[in-house]
Each structure stands twice: as structure tokens, then as C-alpha cells.
Amino acid sequence: MSVLVVGSVALDSVETPFGEREDVLGGSATYFSASASLLTKVAVVGVVGEDFPLHQLQFLERRGVDLAGLERVKGKTFRWKGRYGFDLNQAQTLETHLNVFESFDPKLSPAACAAERLFLGNIDPELQLRVLDQVARPRLVCADTMNYWIGSKRQKLLELLPRVDVLMVNDGEVRQLAGESNVLRAAAAAQKMGARAVVVKRGEYGALLAVPGETFYAPAFPLHDVVDPTGAGDSFAGGFLGLLDRLDDGGPGALRQAVVMGSTIASFTVEQFSLDRLRDLSLAQVRQRFAEFRSLTHFEELPGHVA
Amino acid sequence: MSVLVVGSVALDSVETPFGEREDVLGGSATYFSASASLLTKVAVVGVVGEDFPLHQLQFLERRGVDLAGLERVKGKTFRWKGRYGFDLNQAQTLETHLNVFESFDPKLSPAACAAERLFLGNIDPELQLRVLDQVARPRLVCADTMNYWIGSKRQKLLELLPRVDVLMVNDGEVRQLAGESNVLRAAAAAQKMGARAVVVKRGEYGALLAVPGETFYAPAFPLHDVVDPTGAGDSFAGGFLGLLDRLDDGGPGALRQAVVMGSTIASFTVEQFSLDRLRDLSLAQVRQRFAEFRSLTHFEELPGHVA
């Protein structure tokens, strides 16, 4: 079993009501691989600039993440700067500098081409397609996207969707993609466009999974302290795909467990800035919170006399 | 078993993106009793004016609701006028006319005083206390309130809370009551003020139950069509207390089922304007959606090898 992720490895500057950090570790591939590597073997495809502090990725290598596909090229690393108010569901992007990502042309190693499960992080759909074309026989493809691509690269996205098993987007993105304000209807529309399943991430309100014939909803794990929501979505994706890979199963039951695993790991991510909480997180801690998640949502059937 | 509700019986004028209605049936006691009466015996304490179209309550009588405690007095019925945008979670109140409610002094009949479970709808905490004082030996007391009372009648509310088993409020209300933005912490603070359990209603995002030592979260039932959210909270309360009364149980397991029952019935309410969907709703339909709710949120434990 193995998971391949293509996405950004970045330096983030973040401001939340609980503090601020400058040029700290971030990026979709980073959060994804830190999460997924708790559960399975992960390889990263991406690019950083000469200014990138590579030693900050040592904890990933210790967790077995294959960073051979992370190119280091001339120029500056991708940077994102954002701010959150007390409504932690909505980031305000202050700056985005693609830098070395602008001319990124992913070329996969033979090992990477053999990956069984693939996460196409939120990058240009053209790049997503170029990566997908190189993977020989993926058993499960999961893709993220964002408002910018839905608006500017819609055709490429529509080309991608029929090749995607799980489209993973937030409320606003699925609404924009479908041109429909009701989230259930929007997810159904995305399925008509070709995605076999759709996961709608709803921030602190949880996540909805739509697969043919059924719907599943997991709330977000209620937390006493949320410090920085950055990376929650990619951590979710990492837990989701990491579990499916570990289970080697893409059936409806496994997908439900994978949504909960995604929510579980994301709930750790937001407890601290950057990847600080993920760095030393253990699978035992994850497993315990997964069990608490069951207790959080479990209820019995009604007894017979309520009929 | 029996439930007593004190609250408003009103005429509402509502505008949503999906239409508008003028002077239609509304009020907390109305929604509550329409919902709870699907599950148990309900009696209403309230007041209407001479202008109130009493025949509109006939469906409640057919369902066995005891309306003997609904006074009809000189003057005009309580009226509320509100508007919802596409974000159906937030009503904008345009007008509130207390009318006959202004001088309402509830006097309970001997039968009403013997009620086992009590719902104190969102009215002046002084009135809530005056009703509670008259009920001889309530086994479970559930109370709603709102920002207006939290601000203007805080002392009376603090007097009420230690006598309340379940405080049922929304996000904003529990935050205001506790002076704390984190919902979990705010619920814990409300418990310190005396409420044994707290249910935080979060609109389309579900409901959180905090009881000593455990937390339960039920998402809202995902719907393809939400037409008018008015009355969702009181329908929730009706399903919640109605089920507890029918089960004759206030333990943690029953409280969880009651939250889901509340969400289930509220999910019908919002599918049409006013009480239109509740009028002909059957317990069989409710039971079926409750079962769908289980399928919506159920997931298996992780297998042993994910450890």
C-alpha cells in the first residue's frame, strides 16, 4: 500500500485571535503527508526554493515519508499569508506568492508512478492532470480544488472530475462548482460531473460524504481550544486517504471511517499553529480520539414502543 | 406521562428566499406541542387575543393536545415578523408585538400542576419562574431563553438555572450567557450556573448536548429543500421532551436519542412554511427519518490492525 501526494510545501505567515507566526512550515502536501504518514506509507511530489529550511521536514522522514520527489530549485519557496478572526471558519488571504511553484512541472519517479492511492492537492487542474497521467494504475484518486480554479480553469476541472473517485472541497467550492446553494444538491451535481464520491468539508461543523445511494455526516470534534485552522482540510485529506490505504478498502463502510479519521486528525492540527501539533502526534492518541468520536456521535435505535 | 409547555401562540409574518406568508400560525408553544404530541400527551399554557383564528388549532386537539390552559383575552394576539436571507441560520426580526402577552399571568389548572415534564418556552424568566413554582413535582424541566432576556433579566435567569435540567439555547445565546466564545466552554459555564445539561442548537449544523462527563453531537438532517426555518428550535424541543416523556427516562442514552428526535422533527418543520409540514406528519414518517439519521451518522470501530 502507498499514497502519493502532489501539492505545495510552503512557508506560511498566519494571524489568529490567539497569536501570530511568520514563515512557519505549511503547504497542502506537508499537512497531508504529516497526517497520512501516521497510517501508511506516503511519498511527496512538490517543489521548494533555495530558501527552504529542509531540516524542518526531518520529522516527516522519521515517519517514513518519501521526500525524493520534492525538488529543490532556484528561487523562493511558495508563501501564503492569511488572517483569521473569531469566526475561524473563514481565512482572509492577505498574500499568495507562487514563486517556484509557478514553473513547477512534476515528473514522477518510477516508484511514484506505481502509487496505489493519489491525493491531488489544491493546485492548477492542469498540473493535477499531468500528475494523474503519470500514475500507472491508481486504485483511488482524491482531488481538492478551490474557488480560483473553479472560476479560471473550469474546463480542465471538468476534464479531471470523471477520473476522480473522491472530490474533496468545502461548502463554498461545491456550491460554486455546481451553481447551486443547497449543499446536498450541489454534491449530487458534482457527482453528475463525474466524481464518484464527494466530501464536503464544513470547517468546525464537520464533513459530509455523498456516495451513490447514501449520505454520511461526521461533526467536527468539539474542542476547547482552536488556535489556528490552517491545514485542517489537508490534514483531513491525509487522515482520510491514509486510512483507506491502510485498510486497503474503498467501500462505503471504509469511506465513513475515513471521514471520521480525517476529522480526528484535523482536530489535532487546529490545536496549535503550523504543524506543531502533528509533529509528535502518535497513532495511539489518534486512535483514542477516534474512539471518543464514536462516543460523541453514537446513539441507540428507538425501542419498539415508540412506533 | 405528560408534558406541559408554556410559551407563545402567535401569528407570524415571514419572508424567506422561497416565498412569504402573512399572519400564519406560529409561536413556541404551538410548534412545541405540534411536535411533542406525536410522541406523548401535551398540555399548553398560553394566551391569545380575540383576533386569533382558534380553528387553526383543531389539528392539535385531534392529536390530543390539551388546550384548556390557553386563555383567550381581550386584545390582539402576539405577532412576530421576520425575514431570512440565503443564510437560513439567521432570522432578522422586523417586528415583535407582545400584545396580550404583555400582561400574561399564567395560572395553572390542577391537571397542569401535576405535569411530569415541563418546557419553559422563550418568555420572560419571571414568567418561567412563576410557572415553575406552580408545578408540584416536575421530573424534568427544560428551558429556552434568548439574547433579550440574557441581557435584561440576567438575575432572574440565574435564579432559574439551578432549577433547570436541560437548558436549550443556540450558539450565540450560550456564548452571551457565559461571556465565552468557545461553545464547549460556554456550555460548561452554563452547567456551573446550575443547569444540569445544556443543549446548544446550531441550526443547519446540528445540536450539541453537554451532560456531566459526556458530550454528544447530532448533525442536522441534510435536506434538499429548506423553505422556512421558523419554529425549528421549538420543534426540536418538542421532539426532545416528547421522546423523554414517552420513554419515561432522563438518562444519558435517552438524552442522546431525544436530541436526534428533536433534530428529526425539526427537519420536517423547515420543509414548509409555518406548521404546514407538522400538521399531517405521522409518527411512522418520523420513525423512518430517525432510522435514516442513524444511517447518516453511523460508522464502525476501527479494525484491530489500525493500532
Q: Which labels suit this protein?
A:
four-stranded mixed β-sheet; globular; 12 helices; homodimer; nine-stranded mixed β-sheet; alpha/beta; 307 residues
How would you describe this structure to a colleague?
2 copies of one chain form a homodimer. Chain A is built from 12 helices and 13 strands. By secondary structure, chain A is of the alpha/beta class. Chain A has a 9-stranded mixed beta sheet with strand order 5-4-1-8-9-10-11-12-13, sandwiched between helices. The first copy, chain A, has a 4-stranded mixed beta sheet with strand order 3-2-6-7. In chain A, α4 (125-134) links the parallel β8 (117-120) and β9 (140-144). In chain A, α1 runs parallel beside α9. The mean pLDDT of chain A is 95. At the A-B interface, α8, β13, α9, α10 and α12 of A face α8, β13, α9, α10 and α12 of B.
Outline of the structure:
2 copies of one chain form a homodimer. The first copy, chain A, has 307 residues and is an alpha/beta fold.
Give me the count of strands of chain A: 13
Strand/helix succession of chain A: EEEHEHEEEHEHEHHEHHEEEHHHH
The number of helical runs of chain A is: 12
Kindly report how far apart the N and C termini of chain A lie: 47 Å
Instruction: Please give the oligomerization state of what you see.
Output: homodimer
The strands making up the biggest β-sheet of chain A line up spatially as 5-4-1-8-9-10-11-12-13
Mean pLDDT of chain A: 95
Helix content of chain A: 25-40%
